[in-house]
Design a protein that fits this description.
globular, 22% helix, 3 helices, five-stranded parallel sheet
Length: 134
Amino acid sequence: MDESVSDLPVMLSVRGRRCVVVGAGGVGVRRAKLLAEAGAQVVLIDPLIDTSARQIDAEIRERVFEPGDLDGALLVVCATDHAQVNEAIGRAAAERGVLVNRADEASAGNLAFMTSHRDGPLTLAVHSGGASAS
């Protein structure tokens, strides 16, 4: 067994599941859109929600994150520009058994979004292990 490989590539069904995205910047909006397109019940939280974020099929909460926002959630995306806030979200998620994607520090979470392409029933996904794809 290759000791350098520690992640398990999987497809995760989010249809009908509550998924929380904290941070409505570029990364947060992209991930919220992906989750909504996959059928998730998306909750998008940020004190400043712009027009592009309002186009996503999501429950918008224009305020700061509260730990109770994660109650009943399958996963949370931490996409704020503040590492301390992302860490606090991660701690609240761990207490509730919620999967965590950290946009600022991938190794601090336990869920990664892969780049993917779909063609009919075929899905091709690529993950760089945190290395820059460029």
